Amino acid sequence: MVSTKVSLRVFLSGLPILASARITSRSAIEWGPCEEGEFNTTLPVQCGTVAVPLDYTDPDSKTFDLELVKIPALIQPSRGSIQLNFGGPGFSARGGAVATGSLLQAGGTYDLVAFDPRGTGKTIPTICTDDPLYIGQILGETRASNESDTSLQRLWARGQVDAHICQHLGRGNETAEFIGTAFVARDLISVVDALGEDGLLRYWGFSYGTTLGATVGAMFPDRIDKMILDGVQNPHEYYHAHVDFEGWADSDKVFSYFFTSCIEAGPTKCALAALNKTASELEQDTWDFFDKVREAPIPVGSAILDLLVVKGIVVEQLKDTFLWPTTSQLLAVLLYGSDMEAQAVLDPLLNRAGISPLAGFNFTQALWGIHCGDRIPRLGSFEEAIPEFAKLAETSRLMSDVAASITSHCAQWPWHAKEAYPGDFKVKTKNPILFAGNTRDAHTPIRSAYNVSSGFEGSGILEVNGTGHCALSAPSECSFAVIAAYWGNGTLPSTGSVCEAAGPFDGYTWADVFEAGTATNKTERIERRTAYRWWSS
């Protein structure tokens, strides 16, 4: 999943305006004002609906309205629409699209269009329970997988209980089998048809959004115009494995790189570098701290730091290198400072983005509904799961604690998606797909981009020698040029080429990229720098 703070509209507005035919739209969508107060934005966003079948496998299926949001290109007529998905699965694409386009109102030749995927937001949301008692039990009883000798058994039991709650107490049980990724892929094509442009899909997907993109590309290869899949997830594992092992293959390496790059950056950029320790010593001290909180959770202000909370914070921080200086401050005070110092650094992280426990639980429910419903094989018992948990622990010491829970839930989920893509992701699309990613990504390793690209004949790969989740988390003039060329005329990067990016503690942003070569006047440079300060906050 990618942070929706990166303003794609800002990014697209920086692309050079290439000579290309504008698309005349004969849209069947009646675009109009969005519901008052729904979006906190000054942009002229528009909303509309498309009627789609609840069950694409049933020709007599009833329909429901898929709610869309559009951020029009300011240069009209536009070159067409780009549909967006920000990953998860479980994130709202409508809210994400507005957030990414809410800061700059200049430039842009593509309309941005998004709908909440099934199971999320306003589209058949997965609601296992809205009872505070059950929500408190579910959130309060989630544990790290190696917190104790019985943690795995408790996670397995928690998965069974939650599946029971969802099946017998949840709202929308009658629609649970209709929220799978294959149906969302069909929704993308339904939106293409309703847009009335050229009948082809333009799509930009991040993290899980790359699995959705690979699925729609494989199911409808003749309908693809342009598609960028950034932060590539392995769709083979997503559908057919019990655990997404490949997703965590580089997590521990990136964790180690955090300390190495900190020492290289020096104490003025990384607080840990001022402690007269080597990178290896700092990393070992951090693992020792994890062991400490596993045995004895620490109260800090209003929070209790147990192993799952501490690792969860670190895992989230690894996604975005702009946060690494703050992460180094946090670790410095947790490992070597006072409780008061720790609280001062920790509170902003716990409150970051204003995410409430309920909002987090809504995402969790959506994740269960979509990912678990999509997962084809199931485990019949805890004994069958033990080898999977062991392999997960071997794959990543860092991630195994936080990734075991979804394995327990999916293994016992009571529903299967009504449709699953049955193929092997070996197709040739009408126009080639561009896969993208960073050399160091703790959540979607670059090897996944190469693995999936090998099945899509003629596709290209944008590898950025940077760090963070998805290529857009590592600002680079080179990658900007590659993306500009691809959206402009479909040009792919040369095979084997790698774009360079600044170091993770250098503070280099997309605003700097624009200022270096694409912003045309002082006002535009200031607006873009303001936008990217918000993106990185």
UniProtKB/TrEMBL annotation:
The keyword Signal applies. Residues 1-21 form the signal peptide. SUPFAM superfamilies: alpha/beta-Hydrolases. Belongs to the peptidase S33 family. It comes from the Eukaryota. Keywords: Hydrolase, Signal. The lineage of its organism: Eukaryota, Fungi, Dikarya, Ascomycota, Pezizomycotina. The keyword Protease does not apply. Gene3D superfamilies: alpha/beta hydrolase (3.40.50.1820). PANTHER family: 2-SUCCINYL-6-HYDROXY-2,4-CYCLOHEXADIENE-1-CARBOXYLATE SYNTHASE (PTHR43248), AB HYDROLASE-1 DOMAIN-CONTAINING PROTEIN-RELATED (PTHR43248:SF25). This is TAP-like protein-domain-containing protein. Residues 399-499 form the Peptidase S33 tripeptidyl aminopeptidase-like C-terminal domain. Pfam families: Abhydrolase_1 (PF00561), Abhydrolase_4 (PF08386). Residues 109-244 form the AB hydrolase-1 domain. GO terms for molecular function: hydrolase activity.
